[in-house]
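Researcher: Here's the sequence for the chain we discussed earlier.
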Amino acid sequence: MTESKVLTDQPSKKILRLTLNRPEKRNALNDEIRQELFDALRNGDRDKNISVMIIRGSGEAFSAGYDLSQPNHDVERSIAKTDGWWSRHVVNNWFEIWDMSTPVIAQIHGWCLAGGTELANACDLIYVAEDAKIGYPPVRLMSPPDMQWQTWMMGMRKGMEALLTGDHMTGLEAVSSGMANRAFPKENLDTGVLNIAERIAKIPNDLLALNKRAAHRAMESAGIRNGIRATADIQALGFHQESSKEYMNKLGERDLKESLSERDREFGDYREET
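Model: Thanks. This is the structure I predict for it:
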């Protein structure tokens, strides 16, 4: 029997915890894991006995991003295969987490890259290990982000730097940037996040839903939803650039690890970090 790619448990009353379970792939987001994740989130959101959901990763990472070693297809919210369908599709999916009544927490340790950062920023709260490594390296040779959260969550200047360099930041730097709420020593992360979830769970679900919605409506009045959807179309333009087309052709012709190393070699980070 195939092991589930998303494990669920209830570590405390009214709290559902979802663990991404592809540790051998650093929890890279393929069709199967995304499908199971949304199924579990939807079930939790419908359960009146659940007040908070936590998403974390197994093994050494939260998530290395979308799985580039295999084809990725639309999951759940299907969309016509016109130019830019992929980025519009994943943004639709991430906004489903945003639109749920139940607060969702991202618990990040280890690597959190590219699509993994999109998943985390679709959540309502983000708590990180102090030494987590969070970044969006595809901006270097592939395209702008599918879901451009950087300027919204970190502000114009820090968001711009992240987009122009593709550099990663530590968990402590993520808190300083405004992306994450709080950092814990790695060994205290589970306990720290659970303590916060238990405090949230003391509030009745109907009020939690309204409190979450109030924060989101405020951000939507500032344009976040339309802004992120607009930059999804910019992402689609990336694949029409000569540098991107050359890189993507190489990506399909050779070992994935070598392609990622080429991307990062001049920077001396990610796969080329010494």
